[in-house]
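Lab meeting, item 3. Inverse folding demo.
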């Protein structure tokens, strides 16, 4: 569909010059190379929904219901990288409470499958941490250049990000 092509183009065709998108379809994360290794070593919690993906027309992912169970992922990671997945790595390393960090703006796109492992509104954070949701936003959409197709509210989030950074610079300059 046109929407799927546009969404993939954000990642694979930011210059809008590619005729075809170079999709590597290896490993449980269907990303091959470094992404597959990261998936195997960090076992990011947001990847879990991929394991139940049924494929088109049910969802936007490739059919992985039969292919990837935790045991098949474990076997793949041992064979491909000689590593064992650590499902709780992100939480055991960073926790899920951000009380000691400072001067960070976290954004979460509504359509970003990675947001489930992110810092979300309502979590305990330090006072100088800001968290924003981007309605109809995708992964890292707030970091791309503005376009007329940006979802409503994205410009507001970008202005808030800049205001936070300006405040932190001013505070650091006067210290």
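The presenter then showed the designed sequence:
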């Amino acid at each position: 569909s046109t929407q799927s092509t546009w969404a993939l183009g954000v990642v694979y065709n930011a210059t809008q010059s590619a005729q075809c998108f170079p999709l590597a379809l290896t490993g449980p994360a269907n990303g091959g190379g470094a992404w597959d290794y990261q998936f195997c070593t960090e076992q990011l919690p947001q990847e879990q929904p991929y394991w139940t993906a049924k494929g088109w027309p049910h969802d936007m992912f490739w059919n992985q219901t039969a292919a990837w169970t935790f045991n098949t992922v474990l076997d793949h990671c041992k064979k491909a990288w000689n590593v064992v997945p650590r499902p709780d790595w992100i939480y055991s390393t960073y926790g899920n409470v951000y009380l000691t960090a400072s001067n960070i703006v976290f954004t979460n796109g509504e359509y970003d499958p990675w947001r489930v492992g992110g810092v979300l509104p309502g979590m305990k954070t330090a006072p100088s941490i800001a968290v924003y949701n981007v309605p109809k936003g995708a992964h890292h959409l707030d970091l791309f250049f503005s376009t007329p197709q940006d979802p409503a509210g994205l410009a507001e989030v970008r202005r808030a990000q800049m205001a936070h950074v300006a405040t932190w610079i001013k505070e650091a300059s006067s210290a």
